[in-house]
Amino acid sequence: MKVGIIGAGGVGSACLYAMALRGSAREIVVANRDAKRASGTIRDLQYGTLLTPAVAIRAGDVEELRDCAAIVITIGLNEQRGGATDRNDAAGRLRLLEKNAEIYRDIVPKLAAAAPGAILLVVTDPPDALADVARAAAPRSRVISAGTFLDTLRFRFHLAQHLGVDARSVDAMVIGEHGTSQVFVWSLARVAGTPVIPALLPKTMGAETFRERIEEEVRFANIGIIEGTGASRLGIGVAVARIVEMILRDEKAVIPIGSYQERFGVTMSLPSVVGRNGIERVMPLALSMEEEGALRRSADVLKAAQRSAT
User: Is residue 209 helix, strand or coil?
Assistant: First the structure.
């Protein structure tokens, strides 16, 4: 099946690279405002595709996205260029919303016109708020956000490091905003069915200290990466490739991912069934009172951002 990628910058290129290596799609079209950059990216990778699962990759314009099952949108100002790398700034990625919303209002109607049946997957930061911008710009399109899927992978990874287990054996999730108000669902964090808290806590660390350390590592993982490399792109590239596979293969996989939540009036992440139609349903979630309150606060943060973007 055919997938489109909008943007040939660091994140767009990482998505393309991961999809090609994994064989996520049979055909991938990359569209970029600077067509020469898109062509160069394709030329760089095309020789390596002789060693990957069969995939046709090419640069093209928006009109060539027709028949795409999914379109991954990565264009926009990133965290470093947009000044969103201060650990003490409560706005976090939402600081990028105003400028990136302008870009989305221009491009999304064109994508909807070219590929009305495609699922639009918003990856640009801040993805949840921009998904709502995209919904307003193309009301008939199915719009989802990469949301907290990558945050969830980071949560599992850092838990595993501290607990000394394989991260694939950790069952844990982050919900709400892909940003500073994200919610760590500690009440349901498990390893082989055993609750992380209190059963698996390191002997040298109390529950509150353990939680704070893990949450800080996850919440600011992107900033640590940016300080080292200038941009966070490789992890999200693999995560996006995996989401695309869930859609194209109609997997009915369940992950925390962003979609419009009528209950809260914004796009935010909850565990959801992902398949050919995008988000097929949202799973019920038994949260603690503390987590439910944190989720409402996360929604309020996104609502305030939504109002500022209109």
Answer: helix
